[in-house]
Amino acid sequence: MEQLSRDAPRLGLTPGELREFARGAAGRGQVEKLRDAQLTRTLLLIRHLVSTDPELIPAATVIGRAYEVDPGAVLEVLRLPWLGVWATHRTRGLASAPAGYLDAVARRAANQAGIEPDSVDDWPTLTRYSLRHSGRSLQLTVDDADPMRDCYGLALAGRLTDAAHAAAKSTFDAAWRLLADCAPAYADELTYGLTTFVPLGDAGAGNHSVTNSDAFGAFASEPGLSPVELAVAMVHEFQHSKLSVIMHLADLFDPADRGWYASPWRSDPRPITGLLHGAYAFTAVADLWAALCVQAEFAERAEARLAEVRGQLGQAFAELDRAASLTDAGRLLCATLAARTVRSS
Question: Residue 216: which of 32, 66, 45 has the closest Cα?
Answer without folding.
Answer: 32
